[in-house]
Write a structure and sequence with these properties.
Order of helices and strands of chain B: EHEHHEHEHHHHEEEHEHEHHHHEE
Number of helices of chain A: 3
Helix content of chain B: 25-40%
CATH architecture of the largest domain in chain B: 3-Layer(aba) Sandwich
Number of helices of chain B: 14
Oligomer: heterodimer
Strand content of chain A: 35-45%
Largest sheet of chain A: 5 strands, mixed, barrel
Radius of gyration of chain A: 16 Å
Radius of gyration of chain B: 19 Å
Shape of chain A: globular
CATH topology of the largest domain in chain B: Peroxisomal Thiolase, Chain A, domain 1
Strand content of chain B: 15-25%
CATH superfamily of the largest domain in chain B: Thiolase/Chalcone synthase
Number of strands of chain A: 8
Bound molecules: zinc ion
Number of domains of chain B: 2
Structural class of chain A: alpha+beta
Largest sheet of chain B: 9 strands, mixed
CATH topology of the largest domain in chain A: OB fold (Dihydrolipoamide Acetyltransferase, E2P)
Number of strands of chain B: 11
Largest interface: A-B, 36 and 39 residues
Shape of chain B: globular
Strand order of the largest sheet of chain B: 3-2-4-7-1-8-11-10-9
């Protein structure tokens, strides 16, 4: 596994660190160093709140290599409260309960594991905001 | 700039060619096109391909195919633009001939996908998407299109079964194409009951993984008639790009790259959508047909599916699409697909499409899409 590749993006994956454009104020995720709104340089880090809502979703039955054991799992485009869309998996929710517009929040989970001796890659997923707070409290 | 025409076409049947290697497939298509053009030498070779390294362990395709074809010393390079590699190779050849750098150029699209298991191919195809921000999160290429389809249904009020006409039309047309992978029709019932891959995309929304190769030979129009009785002029060839990741787009349901490349092509040819007699869309998934029809100006936003439901995409409809089966039924050997589209449009304009012939077809267009719209190549061809 490419350790450096995952180390490079740890800020994005663990904390949703993107950027804010110093020229026009656009919030940017994933970071891209050139503002998509005004095309000026934008390198100021900005940590997103992790709140958002489901823009679209899909349940994957036929998974790519390394994800077969997780199938079926549900992925989504999430519209973050600050504006950008982000692509991620949904978690702590049954596929049939997912709706467009559903409020969600970011949590850190395992994205993939490469066998017993391999690397474990963590990153953001999103879970429903209201429904799961009760369930989480019960587990504790 | 010189006017450029297609003087030869060649293709192999799309399918699972366990007995043929990538270089053989490429060579067969090249050989057929050179024979069609009554040509024994070429100046340059552009090979469109996406996944030869990942799926067959072979890069350096320009030299491999040139060597295998006995074209010692010829200029040859690979062109890669994900699923848009085929038409991108034609665009590079077009630039070479139009610019006066070469007279006879072969443009091949070739892909060998069936040597690997499904999950490996699924992973390889996801390389057309954003590796760090889409694929790393477990998204398959199908699921990215599924996100678009779900949102399209949500915004425009369509039901899942409304997308069936795209698949039904493609399969009906493939019945008469001897080079198609699936020469069999499908029904609305089969569509409704097909196996889900990434909800709401099922097996019949999706084009199949396949092996294939197609080729065209292009030359200056001024000398084209010396090589063929039915040259096909390239009236326009235009590439445009958009963000690779769908989440980076202002409006994911509008293929901006598709619109820009279509506008460039219309301007270059001095025509508009109403002048086009047939349109080979990039129907990798049914949703892509709808988005491509809208981006190219054949339907207003949200009306691409309505166009299909109204029966306007059939061979005698307002704008016939996937006239030889499309990606859905001819098959989708990714890097070869764009060249199959060109060969099929040329076949129509030469009047050789048999039972699927569009009457009086003069102008044909193809739109080849890389990724979920990040690279879009629009080509407009004219028959003589
Ligand atoms: Zn800005």
């Amino acid at each position: 596994m490419e350790v450096a590749r995952f180390w490079r993006t740890k800020g994005q994956r663990y904390q949703l660190v993107g950027e804010v454009c110093p020229s026009c104020g656009e919030k940017i995720f994933p970071p891209r160093d050139v503002c998509p709104a005004c095309e000026k340089e934008a390198k100021t880090p900005y940590t997103f709140s992790g709140k958002g809502e489901v823009y679209s979703y899909s349940t994957i039955y036929s998974a790519p290599e390394g994800f077969e054991k997780y199938a079926p799992y549900t992925v989504a485009l999430v519209r973050l409260a600050e504006g950008p869309l982000v692509t991620a998996q949904l978690t702590d929710v049954d596929a049939q309960d997912v709706k467009v517009g559903m409020p969600v929040e970011m949590v850190t989970r395992v994205l993939r594991e490469d066998g017993e001796r391999g690397m474990v890659v963590y990153g953001y997923k999103f879970r429903p905001v209201c429904a799961n707070q009760g369930a989480a409290a019960q587990q504790i | 700039m010189r006017d450029v025409s297609i003087i030869g076409i060649g293709q192999v049947k799309v399918g699972e060619h366990w007995d043929k290697s990538l270089r053989e497939l490429g060579y067969y298509a090249l050989h057929a096109a050179m024979k069609d053009a009554r040509l024994e030498r070429i100046d340059s070779l552009f090979v469109g391909n996406m996944l030869s390294g990942e799926l067959t362990g072979q890069e350096h395709l320009g030299a491999i195919i040139a060597d295998f074809a006995g074209l010692k010393g010829v200029e040859a390079v690979k062109v890669e633009a994900a699923c848009g590699s085929g038409a991108a190779a034609l665009r590079m050849g077009y630039i070479a001939v139009a610019g006066g750098m070469a007279d006879f150029v072969a443009c091949i699209g070739v892909e060998k996908m069936t040597d690997k298991q499904n999950a490996s191919v699924t992973s390889a195809l996801a390389m057309a998407a954003d590796g760090d921000y889409e694929a790393l999160h477990g998204l398959s290429f199908v699921s990215i299109n599924a996100l678009l389809m779900r949102r399209y249904m949500h915004e425009h009020g369509y039901k899942k079964e409304d997308f069936a006409p795209f698949a039904i039309n493609a399969h009906a047309n493939a019945v008469n194409n001897p080079y198609a992978m699936f020469q069999a029709p499908v029904t609305q019932k089969q569509f409704t009951e097909a196996k889900m891959i990434a909800d709401p995309i099922n097996l019949l929304d999706s084009s199949p993984i396949a092996d294939g190769a197609a080729c065209v030979i292009i030359a200056p129009t001024a000398i084209a008639k010396e090589f063929t009785d039915r040259p096909v002029r390239i009236r326009a060839s235009a590439i445009a790009t958009d963000t690779v990741a769908v989440h980076d787009r202002r409006d994911p349901l509008f293929l901006e790259g598709g619109a820009i490349s279509a506008q460039k092509a219309y301007a270059m040819a001095g025509v508009g959508p109403h002048d086009i007699d047939l349109f080979e869309v990039h129907d990798a998934f049914t949703i892509m047909s709808a988005l491509s029809l809208e981006a190219a100006g054949f339907a207003p936003r949200g009306k691409g599916v309505a166009l299909a439901l109204d029966g306007e995409i059939g061979l005698s409809g307002r704008i016939p699409i996937t006239t030889m089966g499309g990606l859905k039924a001819r098959g989708h050997p990714v890097g070869a697909t764009g060249m199959y589209q060109i060969v099929e449009v040329a076949t129509q304009l030469r009047g050789e499409a048999g039972a699927n012939q569009i009457k009086n077809a003069r102008l044909g267009m193809a739109q080849n899409i890389g990724g979920s719209g990040a690279t879009v190549i629009t080509t407009i061809l004219e028959g003589f």
